[in-house]
## 1
Amino acid sequence: MPVFAALLTTIALLAPAPRPHIVQKRIPFPPRRERETRSYAIRHYGIHTFKLRNPKVIVEHFTETTSFAPVWNTFARDVPDVELHELPQVCAHFVIDRSGRIYELVPPNIMCRHTVGLNWTAIGIEHVGMSDAQVMGDRRELRASLALTRWLQSRYGILTRNVIGHSESLSSPYHRERVASLRRQTHADMQHATMVRYRRLLRAR
Ligand SMILES: [Zn+2]
């Protein structure tokens, strides 16, 4: 019964989720980085802004680090990234550490480079950890992640099917990329099987 299912989805979206505690730990985002982000958006998406408006997707990642500090330091230093050698430096809006502390590094109304093809419409959440299993197995980190994601969903009206893992980026209906060599580029973090479980936990909240 698709109509009934759609109604349930709507009811779930309307249910306001409480804002979890968020520690403000902003990376510098001076006018130079804003200009670089705008240039990136023009090159990759054909849109002329560094602003993130009406986000439709949340992408979950893990950091491949064991702590928060090196993640902040990498994102804060605005030099070309080590993988694609492009400016601005990569970043994510939020990082959650293993104690369940949520840090906001970039406000969600500014674009961050965290997922090729989706940065124009996606909020990025990084989890401190070395694997999907570690993130999913850490009770405090996972609880904070679900609370943050639920709150962002209710704030922006983002459907649970659009809460995806980085490894699922190419199958998102929102994926778009103007640079041909990057059209199939993705990463292996937060696999489909992990995200099936993650989305089930989200829906159960
Ligand atoms: Zn990732």
## 2
Amino acid sequence: MGKILICYFSTGGEDIGAGENKEVGNTAVMAGLIADKLTAESHDVTSFRIQPANPYPSSYDQKLARAMEERSMQERPEYTEDVADFDDYDTVFIGYPIWCSDLPMIVYNFLEKHVFTGKVVIPFCTHGGSGESDTFRIVREKAVGSAPGDGLAIPGNLVDKPGGKKQIDHWLEQLAV
Ligand SMILES: Cc1cc2nc3c(=O)[nH]c(=O)nc-3n(C[C@H](O)[C@H](O)[C@H](O)COP(=O)(O)O)c2cc1C
């Protein structure tokens, strides 16, 4: 698997149904578990968080309104800084929350800004019940020239539970990274 990059977008904030304000988002927790396991197995791992130039409100309703607007306008929200030496990585994990049964528009921006030729690209996501919502296919389409790896989607409220870690560990073992 060579040099591994784990890029992810995660906002946290008010989590619908959970009644709590999450400082660390679900996808960030998932990205951390992936990084921990791969690092423990002596892989060369770098994590990169896609940070929006215009931060999202923590209120669920406000964030949803903005996400819907961005999606209907097919916007490509900017992020603050980019990955250094993207070309050096052999394997790229790309993580995101499902927003409106889709990838967040900022993740489209990230995918469209990079050249994935020759890399293995592995998507992962958290969601509130709708599963991966066909986003793994979209990631494969956008990451032109890459070799696809099997993605993993898990419910956001499971990531910090033992069952979530178990699923992630099992998936990574199947991927044989
Ligand atoms: C704007 C917005 C739209 C969402 N749309 C969906 C959806 O269509 N389907 C779904 O299952 N969950 C949806 N969710 C729930 C998130 O996917 C879920 O809470 C996720 O784990 C949040 O990840 P994060 O904490 O890393 O940001 C949505 C959440 C937000 C904030």
## 3
Amino acid sequence: MKAVKKQTPSAGADIVDVPIPKVGGDAVLCKVLAASVCGTDVHIYNWDNWAQKRIKPPLIFGHEFCGEVVETGPKVKHLRPGDRISAETHIPCHTCKQCKSGQMHICKNLKILGVDTDGCFAEYAILPEICCVKNAPSLPAEIASVQEPLGNAVYAVTESDVAGKTIAIFGDGPTGMFANIVARAYKAEKIFAVGAQSYRLDILKRLNPDIVIDARTENASEIIMGATGGDGADVVIEMSGSPKAIHAGLKVVSRGGIFTFFGIPSKPVELDIAEEIIFKGIKMNAIVGRKMFETWTQVAFLLESGRIDLKPVITHTFALEKIASAMELLKPDNIQAGKIILKPHP
Ligand SMILES: [Zn+2]
Ligand SMILES: [Zn+2]
């Protein structure tokens, strides 16, 4: 089969021909119908500092996908060839305290598809049955392939209790864009969307938040404080990982409000815990992955009910072997795309 492989510890990736993986145990072999490019894949492709520390080539990367089951291992109980699935990318160990207490998403021995194991930028991918979430047959492959990052947004928004509240979402990556859509669906009253890339700000505007703020040229905290009569936002969801955004978010979260961390800073960030957090009496959440599998049920309901429309965010589709073109549009200093879908089969 054709696959995108990082073969050496250097930038880029090769299109290679490799054997289709063999199923065994609880493994499920899927024909990849659509794979979506994540920020993590951009890190791996560009071979930045994070990737150099985390990734051990050779590796077929890519983790967000939807596929059709083609073969199952002898221990697979609930899936059959022909089933359509999307991948939960957190592979749990089933034996640690977290796994045994309903918190598989923060498993102590967690492996990540396409990071620790071969992933989905290939014609076929293999993953354990527990990580295969069955899709409604009517769900289009492109939409099904982005349920994993959409789930991040759903988890962040549902933990933040947004109904009827004023909320500020910092970050214009896919999860930040999805969080705008999801917060509206969960009845946020007023939404401030803060971004810092021209292309993504244009997408944010199409998602109809109440106020879009360009963090490059505008002062987010002044605008949000001004528009809320000095009270600030009831909820801040931080999805950029930028220290500037974290401090601005802590400044604008109202006293007694909720601050939800999701964006990953590239290095440690210094906070004034007394002034920025304790004296304001705020509640804080840390969001990683998706609840396995409560979040997936919420995602399926949002999609099936038609309460959310992801089309403005999914901007490009390429054949898998055109991955270099996709990565060109996702260059961190000049982003020219929303979510990009790769298709391994014509
Ligand atoms: Zn991802
Ligand atoms: Zn575990």
## 4
Amino acid sequence: MQFSVRHALGSYNVYCERGALSHIGDHFALDRRVLIVTDTGVPAEYAKAVAKCCQTPTIVTVAQGEESKSLAGLELLCETMLKNDFTRSDCVVAVGGGVVGDLACFAASAYMRGIDFYNVPTTVLSAVDSSVGGKSGVNFNGVKNILGAFYQPKGVLFDADVLKTLPARQISAGLAEAIKMALTFDAPLFETFERGEVNDALYESLIFRAVQLKAAVVEKDEREGGLRKTLNFGHTFGHAVEAAGELGLLHHGECVALGMIPFCSEAVYKRLLPVLKRFDLPSAIPFDMERAFPYLTHDKKWGKGGVDCIFVREIGSFEIKKLTKDELLKTITDAKNRFI
Ligand SMILES: NC(=O)c1ccc[n+]([C@@H]2O[C@H](COP(=O)([O-])OP(=O)(O)OC[C@H]3O[C@@H](n4cnc5c(N)ncnc54)[C@H](O)[C@@H]3O)[C@@H](O)[C@H]2O)c1
């Protein structure tokens, strides 16, 4: 399965193909110097499989975790390219989750003012969300994603065989972003979440459809001027819950799952709750929800007069409403009984 994503400077293909890692050279131009970036949590065999398809591969393995999305990480990648005489006609391939993807893409955007970048997402979150849309970046001075660039990949390849090694909790957390896409854009996809037999083939088809939906959004709004706001569904409160919890208590996708709960109609909530439970996503906050409130206004998306919030009254559609801080707090506290 494949589709093409258009952007201001051209287009690229997204391939969803089981077993494709071992012949990735059929899809990507790897007959050159290739910097393969991965992390210590990603099984090394994936980067090695990609390396076998490259003319001159160099693998860099950063430490797993958000800390690697740093200027030090960027420096390591650029230093490695410089030492290995990378030119503007060489390329970078990310083999990993969103951490590796964001870091490697930023390095590709900066090295010699931009060399080709390919993304091989190995988590559900990175397949569904971060692999398309062209956002790259690192954290700096304790602020997440504060340095970065919009830089489009030359290609994206998701091989669902990588799910075999991904912890179940990571799969569920990534699927929260796919549920988000279904709720806002695709009622039949949501029905598949409700009824499809849960197995690897289902995951693969949910991921493929969700990334297609995300691609359609970013095609229409490359630089986050309008429609892309919809991708923030579940994130305003989700980010606050994520910030309020101890480090590592909840995964980002789990917080998105919780964040969607107050922002839908009662009818939608009644269908969302069983889906969250079906995919082992939380529907209760593991601490007093008030603890998250101070973090609500830290959202980068706050502007004059409030923050744009996405509401889903009917599955497959959305409304955007600007809420003041008080209105936002009321929306969340009114939904307190839903967190069960
Ligand atoms: N650029 C964007 O548009 C965008 C969108 C959403 C999120 N993000 C970023 O993505 C990052 C989160 O991404 P993530 O959830 O993929 O986390 P991650 O990259 O940290 O991966 C999660 C963990 O899974 C491990 N892992 C990856 N693939 C594996 C596999 N197949 N088998 C076993 N283990 C595997 C990793 O080593 C890591 O420990 C955050 O930094 C976030 O800011 C970016």
